[in-house]
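Hi R.,

Quick one: here's the Zinc-dependent alcohol dehydrogenase family protein sequence you asked about.
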Amino acid sequence: MRAVTYGQVGELPTVVETDEPLCPDDGVVLEVGATGVCRSDWHAWMGHEAVTLPHVPGHEYAGTVAEVGRSVTRVRVGDRVTVPFVLGCGICAYCARGDSQVCPDQLQPGFSLPGSFAERVAVPRADHNVVPLPDQVSFAAAAALGCRFSTAYRAVITHAAATSRQWVAIHGCGGVGLSAVMIARAVGARVLAVDVRADALDLASRLGAETTLEIRDDTDVAGAIRDITDGGADVGIDAVGDARVAAASVRSLRPRGRHVQVGLLVGEAAMTALPMDLVLARELAILGSHGMPAVDYPAMLSLVASGALSPEALVTRRIGLDEAGAALAAMGTPAGAGITLIEPNAG
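And here's the predicted structure, written out as tokens:
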């Protein structure tokens, strides 16, 4: 089969002919209908996360079950499915209570396993992790849910517990930030989108942001947000993964506000300092959001099937495998707004 792979950190990924994936006894092989190009894939490509080389990236995907392992009981050949990017073991205490996204024995196609930038991908632990798709949800919509939309969903709905008329400041309008804009607006929140790019803010406005803040070199981000929201945001979400952004988000919160860290902080930035004096004085909450377990997908998918959420609206570019390497490399620089999808078997 054809797959996108790279043999060295930072080496431009290329399309190669490779062996078909072996179906795990407890897993399935999917024919990939669509897979997203995510900045997390870029981080692995840059060496910020350890992967075994040569490596096939890709962790946001949906497709059709082509093969089923002999111990699988809940999935059949021909099923249309998607899969969380974190595959829980299904037997530990965290998985038992519905928190597979923090399973200590987790697996991740695209990181610890070969990923979905390929015509087919193997998915272990299928009974615990594979999620059936409603007929109304396309592969493109399901792939757009990926890690970005599902992580944003838990950030806004579960962790931030955003409600109607609360101010939600979303820092960064890439895929995960725009997902958060759409989700926060769907629950009736007042959304303030923050970015350095006018085109990203324009898309955020079309997706429901009430107002936007375009950052320039001299912008006092926290002060501007407090002015716009008349005292501070109820919720701040760092969808970039930047120490300055995280600190500005915390400083922009009103008393009892919640900061949710969604963007990945790497290297020295992972040890970033936050204004803990404000955390104490204002009784602020600092939370992290890392994907979503399969058990929580049906509620989100029902909103997509009903039209209340439209992740496919985030898709601004569709490409084939031949263009995937360049698209991955481009994730390191500010580019066009929205999500790029690869359709490995299209045409």
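The mean pLDDT is 95.

Cheers,
M.
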